[in-house]
């Protein structure tokens, strides 16, 4: 890598844990979050692991974890600090603000944080498992006018650039990007480590700053309105056929509907 090690900014979203069965609120306004286990978004966990590996290889020397949301997001940031981040920034929002927070507002906040922190690289998960938007990384790159390497499954350093293998519909694509840049992590990029007890204890002493969207002059008003949330339709029961001829007949009938 060129001259000095990088300063990396990693987005860390608090989401309902992947193992929890999602329940829709009776009024259809959203999903039940009260009393439900939350954790660090798995794709953001992969992003954090990649940043840590870069630091271990001396490619980076500082990792800053950032999360936008209510006070409970500090638990998520402590997880990131226990994994290996050096410091954290909690962009505090009320519960009501967080419920309507959308990717564009998050991208604006993270891009401003990247400027203030003089970050050389921003790594985020390719998407969050709650809304599956897959927009934030691309928007950050556009706002900062930085090159982007999305859906990364491998990141290596070649001279003064990053060589990134991307997962695309047709297979794999390899590109090189100069820093500063934005990378979004895909599932196969790495396998995140578990935080050890000593590191969990150390995380409690690592610095965590608290800010608000207004500190970055970002308007977080939602651009989109959720009209209703509902469970997917129940899958209809299958049926048995006696032979291939009956199967073909049923397929023909279904195709003519």
Explain this structure.
The chain is an alpha/beta fold and 257 residues long. It has one domain (6-255): HUPs (Rossmann fold, 3-Layer(aba) Sandwich), CATH 3.40.50. 28% of the residues lie in helices and 27% in strands. The strands form two sheets. It has a nine-stranded mixed β-sheet with strand order 9-8-7-10-6-1-4-5-11, with helices on both faces. It has a two-stranded antiparallel sheet with strand order 2-3. Helix 2 (73-83) links the parallel strand 4 and strand 5. Helix 2 (73-83) crosses helix 6 and helix 4 (103-116) crosses helix 5. The longest helix has 15 residues, at 42-56. It is globular and about 70 Å long. The relative contact order is 0.18.
């Amino acid at each position: 890598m060129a001259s000095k090690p990088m300063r990396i900014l990693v987005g860390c979203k608090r989401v309902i844990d992947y193992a929890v069965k999602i329940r829709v609120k009776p009024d259809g306004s959203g999903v039940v979050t009260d009393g439900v286990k939350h954790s660090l978004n798995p794709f953001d966990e992969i992003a954090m692991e990649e940043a840590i590996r870069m630091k271990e290889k001396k490619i980076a020397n500082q990792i800053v974890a950032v999360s936008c949301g209510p006070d409970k997001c500090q638990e998520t940031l402590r997880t990131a600090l226990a994994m290996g981040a050096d410091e954290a920034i909690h962009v505090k929002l009320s519960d009501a603000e967080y419920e309507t927070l959308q990717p564009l507002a998050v991208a604006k906040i993270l891009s401003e944080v990247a400027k203030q922190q003089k970050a050389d690289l921003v790594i985020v998960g390719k998407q969050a498992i709650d809304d599956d938007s897959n927009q934030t990384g691309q928007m950050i790159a556009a706002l900062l006018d930085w090159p982007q390497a999305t859906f990364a499954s491998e990141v290596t350093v070649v001279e003064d650039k990053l060589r990134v293998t991307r997962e695309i519909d047709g297979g794999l694509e390899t590109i090189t990007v100069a820093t500063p840049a934005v990378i979004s992590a895909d599932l196969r990029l790495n396998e995140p480590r578990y935080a050890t007890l000593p590191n969990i204890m150390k995380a409690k002493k690592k610095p965590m700053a608290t800010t608000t969207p207004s500190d970055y002059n970002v308007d977080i008003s939602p651009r989109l309105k959720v009209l209703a949330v509902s469970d997917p339709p129940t899958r209809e029961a299958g049926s048995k056929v006696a032979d291939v001829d009956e199967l073909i007949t049923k397929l023909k009938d279904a195709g003519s509907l």
